[in-house]
Structure prediction request, 88 residues.
Amino acid sequence: MAKNDDDAFSTLLENPWGSLIFGLFVIGIAISLHHTFTELETGVRESERLNWIVAVVYNLLGHWPAVGLVAAMGGFLAVSGIRKMTAS
Prediction:
């Protein structure tokens, strides 16, 4: 079953539209993460469960590098999709 899941994800990223849409989705996650960090820092929320990698980057480097890392991954995927579209 896991092999089929890996194949479906690989197929999604090989498709130009799939890369573009997934990249935009990841950028949306970065925007949501920025909102969450802002609420945590201003005291609107007291705690939040985060992915451990994002939590480590946040604890070591702060708010913007953690958001920037996620946004950069989304941007890379979106640009990759656009480049695949123009190459076809």
Residues 16-87 form one domain. The helical segments are 2-14, 16-42, 52-61, 63-87.
